[in-house]
């Protein structure tokens, strides 16, 4: 579709505004610096924006220190959209506001890289995908977990058929405590529950390895209803902190997924795929663990595993520059490895805009990850298995009603709810 309103592809550096100057905003800034350090930073941070002036000013100071030039400071979206230097937004606000920033920005022709989850509901995601389609601007989802070398390798092992026909994937992240998980909004259903916040990473990885998820059965739950703050205060949780689900992919693979980061009991992490010719263990994200394939003849890993791949396995230059030849970060401190993963996704967005191509994780793909998690939550609300396509189309939405109301995304009472066109967010 021709772009009307969005800026044309250009070999020039991309003038960027960092939107949202909280915890993750700072990590994106570190990723810009990491990219600059390896000669792959092809944007200019011309502005930062936060509704909190103190946060925006602190970020501008940090940017000056890391990148050598102080960006302009904006404290309103009007200010950002009125700043003609800005061609693209790196959107790192909390997820309840993603659509409210992204839609006007996209319609004004600005390209947007949005942090995950793309939106809190399908309506929010759909509004963003629609706006990008109408303006022709690039909408990308910042999905970092898939960028690591082990996850790239795991996908290639499946593609190359080394497991034979995959039957089962097991994804368990179990155990935790009753502390607030990073920020209070992650325990507030109307502002983004940690079950969705974390669940979209897991859903994206399932689809990355095994293709589209077709059907989900399960539930979300609040396993720790009272959460302790850092200063020993207490907050009442309304947002689900846990997801337990059974998924089936379109290709017929069953996926058992449990995210239960609570309770004083056992802690357990497992990500394995089991097939007719063997099984694969995938190490935790952002570690330097190796993918291991187990077959009748023993365990295969490292160089031997790479030599068996019939599909070529090569990491791109940016990944190798940031995370080393195997794309894992080689045991570097977490902050460096984290900046590497984020640098890969940010560089892909910048290149997509400059080259006029689609990003690896576009808006539709980010919306699919949200839909898979919502399908589990919708299944919990109805007690029935839920088709992901029915979440994407808007046909199943009971769990999301309350959130859409709070976000101002519910249709007026006079207007009957129109299912979304499945094609719009369902087929990328
Ligand atoms: N991929 C990952 O590994 C990862 C890790 C952490 C966070 N995230 C994502 O990053 C995003 C931000 O998370 P965070 O932990 O930094 O949250 P945060 O609460 O620390 O920061 C959000 C910032 O956005 C600002 N903000 C809110 N609404 C705004 C608006 N309308 N306009 C401008 N500024 C606004 C807030 O004032 C705050 O400074 C979320 O989408 C989260 O899911 C991703």
Would you write up a description of this structure?
- The protein is an alpha/beta fold and 428 residues long.
- Helix content is 38%, strand content 21%.
- The strands form three sheets. A nine-stranded mixed β-sheet has the order 16-15-14-13-7-12-11-8-17. A six-stranded parallel β-sheet has the order 3-2-1-4-5-6, with helices on both faces.
- A hairpin with a 2-residue loop joins strand 15 and strand 16.
- The C terminus is likely disordered.
- It binds nicotinamide-adenine-dinucleotide (NAD).
Q: Decide which structural class fits the backbone.
A: alpha/beta
Which percent range describes the beta-strand content? 15-25%
Major sheet attributes: 9 strands, mixed
Bound molecules: nicotinamide-adenine-dinucleotide
Number of helices: 14
The share of residues in helices is 25-40%
Q: Tell me, what is the CATH class of the domain at 14-145 and 342-362?
A: Alpha Beta
Distance between the termini: 15 Å
Roughly how many Å is the radius of gyration? 21 Å
Number of strands: 17
The parts where pLDDT drops under 50 for at least 5 residues are 413-428
Predict the CATH topology of the domain at 14-145 and 342-362: Rossmann fold
How does CATH name the architecture of the domain at 14-145 and 342-362? 3-Layer(aba) Sandwich
- Average pLDDT number: 93
CATH superfamily of the domain at 14-145 and 342-362: NAD(P)-binding Rossmann-like Domain
Q: In one word, what is the shape? A: globular
Strand order of the largest sheet: 16-15-14-13-7-12-11-8-17
